[in-house]
Records
---
Amino acid sequence: MYPITVRMEGKKVVVAGGGKVASFKIRPLLEAKADVTVVSNELSSSIRELVEAGCVHWIQGTYERNDFKEAFLIIAATDDKDLNIRIEQEASEYQLVNVITDPERGNCHFPAALKQGKLLIAVSTGGASPKLAKHIRNQLQEHYDHTYEPYLEFLNECRMLIKERYEAKAVRHQLLAEILEDEYRLSRQKQEQFKERIIRETVDLR
């Protein structure tokens, strides 16, 4: 499998199945602003709440091939393994398909993911052991904690600031390397001092 992150905003996603497993897959997609439709006779309480809130579309009934015709991503998450395989087989070769009941099938997998703001770390075992992937993800979470969310915002702001104000690549590299030190991640004061220093130095140079 080739690792890639995909911009899902506005992309049509169709989920076959309305149970607990399907609900786990839907919420991250909504966070990514995907356009999610669920095809199922019944819905779990959590998915029903999303439908009632207008966050998810619901096609009540059994699987029909036309339900998936325009989907960018298809998630086969019913409790019927044969139906999930059929959904995969009837999908276009240009569609992304994830088969919940069989990691060997489909052309995309969902890794165990750790997200802290702009920081995204994904762990996959290629379907060999989803539990191990989650275990590694949990271990990483102990190190890459909530402090990384504001820190990444700081790094992004500084990258743009440095790129705008310094032409010399060596200077840019030195400054960007400096703010990777933990003292900047752990101190908002140090972050502000660094940005003030950049502005002051470049004003002086001009």
---
Amino acid sequence: MQKALTLTRTSIGKKALVAITGAILFAFVIGHLIGNLQVFLGPEHLNAYAEFLHSMPKALWTARAVLLLALIVHVGLTVQLAVANSAARPNRYKVSSDVGDQGPLMRYARKTMILSGPIVFAFIAFHLAHLTIGADVIQGYRFDPHDVYLNVVYGFRSVWVTSFYVFANILLGFHLYQGGQSLLQSLGLRSPRFDQRVRGAAMAFAAFVTLGNVLIPLTIMARVVGGDVPDLPALPPTP
């Protein structure tokens, strides 16, 4: 703990912690997506997966605590570094030809990095409230902790919920694209010889996560998934 606190006192230490927590979150993102993709296999598979996770409450809550801590440290230190960099150099440095030739996608990812972090943080908070805690985000439906499949289907039949998920996951994709490259650089593991491969791997990873996360709500909204689930009954008119 003392060593971790010491790291937060220097910019190099902060960047290292951002990279380490980013790696933890990267692992979670891919594992979370693979689990959620079971919605395409039907209610039995998704509900069985959820039941399996909840059969290990100690491991589940330990993982949640580690992820929450990693997320808070990652976002907090990223904001601190951005503020410190802005204060240290109000005028941008001239970029090298390597950076300048990275293309519009890379430049956009770099510019939105500081904004996408807090937005994704807010998205995760909403996601937990929506599908883990069971907040009433859909009128007329009561959250069922034992039927994850129905929660997901009814949740993503809401236009505003699906729109928010798609928007947040596109930002997450840009964040993963830029963060995947920055992670290796912050840990001193990046070499110019492998830059193109690193960029290609980061783009493939970000595209896979974004496409998978976006397909789930969109296919539910289009009734490709869960089409046999009846609509919620109409609410009685308010007097």
---
Amino acid sequence: MLKTWPAQERPREKLLSQGAQSLSDAELLAIFLRTGVKGCSVVDLARQLLNSFGSIAAIYQASMQDFCQHHGLGQAKYVQLQACLEMSKRYLKEQVGEQHYLTSSSDTKNYLISELRGERHEVFGVVLLNSQHQVIGFERLFEGTIDAAAVYPRVVVENVLLQSAAAVILVHNHPSGLATPSEADQRITQRLIQALALIEVKVLDHLIIAKHQCYSFAEHGQL
């Protein structure tokens, strides 16, 4: 029982005294779970779940069926978890909206990672920016297998004009977990740079999201 543990080792007390960053993944998950099950403390339950799923990210991405089949979990916990995930996404989105000069913003990358890392299929979108490089919005434009034939410059241009954007950051995900750009990714990038140049809109970057990784074309001198 956690009540018998020294106060400084209990997750809640440790968070209050040392900050959330001091907690392990299991301790953070234990605070979310709140209670253990018969014969198993909440921290031990959290460790079991992490061992079973492999990571916190995998727990977030689990289907309701996979999540609820574990002892000690249920629909109510699944709903709570999804609410926590959505709140974190909205927080990051608000942070991104307040930033300037987003070509080097870690907040932008973190927001896009949170949006796309759990997708099981490929998604291609654009971050729309005004003339001061502040975020106007993020639009998902294409889904499925992304290649040079599946991304239509006309659709991208229409959305840019509709939002009166002055610049864009292109983004898509690799569900495979490999962030390295393919030849198709490079062709798409060049086609869109050329199409958007005709309406005097600059492509600041093309980001590839693969789980927790983020590859930047701009940072690798590929624009």
---
Amino acid sequence: MPHGNTPAYHLAQLNIATIKYPKESEEMKDFMDALDGINLLAECSPGFVWRLKDDTGNATDYTMFDDKTLVNMSVWQDVASLHKYVYKSGHTHYIGRRKEWFEMPAEAHMVLWWVPAGHQPTVEEATERLLHLRNHGPSAQAFTFKQAYDAEGIEL
């Protein structure tokens, strides 16, 4: 049982994106060069808990479904903290440029779910949640910002 204000659950998020060009290409340079700063911004944002990293300090060595689909996964204290980082910080500028670097997804490419505080989700776990969302729509098991649930499974 948590003590005081220590939450029992944190919010995990996965988003994937299929690159249009090789990571080392000139077309991807602006994106690749921005990763360290954007990741630092996330880590310094209120509510940030953890993010998936590879040996470079980013997560560009991780892929999902194929070698062109990059993975971004992190854990936050709550939906509001993640939403603020994604849509009300310097991160928003790069969302506006995503069509330059990434194919536009035909199906769900982002999923949220609750994990026990202290748990670091795996890429395999995230894949299962994304596929659950794609196959069954939003639920307490796998949801989106548009149809979110709290840690008790109640729709927000």
